[in-house]
Amino acid sequence: FQKRQQLADKEKKHSGLFSSPPGSSLNISTNCYSVDKVKRKVVGKEWAPNSFSSRFTCMFCNEQFRKDYKLNLHLMMAHKDQPKGLMDKAKEELIKAKLDGCVHMCGVCKNKYNSIANFTRHIKDVHSMTRNEYKMKFGDSEVVSRMFTCELCSKEVKHTRNIIGAHMKMVHLISWKEYQDIVMKLKSGEGNIDLPNPELFDCVICGVSVKYKREHLNKKHQLDEDVYEELIAKKARGEDISEDLPDREVFTCAICERECMDFKRHLSVCHKLTEEQYRVEFCKGESPQVKIVKQDVFNEDLNTSKDISSPHFNKVKKVKKEKAEEAELLSTDLQCYFNCEEVFKKDYQLHLHLKLKHRNEDTAELERAYEAANEEIALTRRSASLFTCALCPRVFNDNGAFYGHIQNKHDISYRDYKDKYGRCETESQPFECKICEKVIKYDRNTVHIHLKNVHG
Prior knowledge:
By secondary structure, the chain is α+β, with helices and mostly antiparallel strands. Helix content is 42%, strand content 14%. The N and C termini lie far apart (65 Å).
């Protein structure tokens, strides 16, 4: 560092011998200390500096602080006469305002750290150990584990900076500061609150609109962005690109019956198994069940010429992009009880809309709106199975979410859980196909396979 500083000073002195043109600034030293100042982009949004730094607000007087210890001191000095119950609630609100809610303790020197980054830096600089070496010797460093509940969508995630930041950016398209501002407005009862709208990517291959281009191309079509652009250019010239699309290998898991393309990752994440262990224990040494699926190219002309006599197709929806455009209303789209123009793909989006846009409505009318929303969500569900965790009160209607929960929350694999607690599925209903009247199990994979294979 000192050598680079000396070189920079010499260059600066040398540059002073020459006159620079007016309006130009000669700053050679910045080349020696180049910092990557490119802002992170998520769905076309650039995050401002300090977008993910916390502000701590006093529950009693709404005074704000940049540091948590300052709010703690403020509570002890200015509000020491408050009842113990209210003081405990104020301290709980302080913890919620932090981005790092878990505590890591060093097994060597017993120092505690609120973030895994600080803990990793500590064991590296002080004890000359990597995280893997530490884990092999001392086990897990996390001594306090907390869950964070998003006050917008009620989703629970682990209380760590990276996970909360990813949730805010990927789900709500807002920064942590914007989230804190919205929560303050909700508590103070201010007017309507608008959330940013996603800039959707329209996939030419399959015809769907998604928020995340790279993830969609990688998972759905197994293509890189540059390969996709070449294929689009080829299609624009009138050439057939169906033969250029890679065939997809779809694996069916014998444990949870899920279909997936990245089977190795599925076994590792959901069941904590290697492929070799899976073959021996569940396939009698044979290869896992796989089928080759040919990708079809979306034909816009054929799509627009379909019969739209169904009442679901007579309506139009407004898709929020840079320009509003009309599109067909799908049978799985959710609509607001108050006849708003927006439609919603996810249940939490409809609940969030009611929470933000209509929270000032009459209480009885708002209750009816939530009941109507829950009824509509039940009609559009692709699964009627319920999975109740035997270790905590959580209930899930998707086996994938349930398997992820028991592994991440309780650190137990699906196989060990099933051996110890028995059947995972606590409630199930049959699904009767309205086309062929066949009755099948009402879960996502079974219904999807039936509709795709039988009815195309």
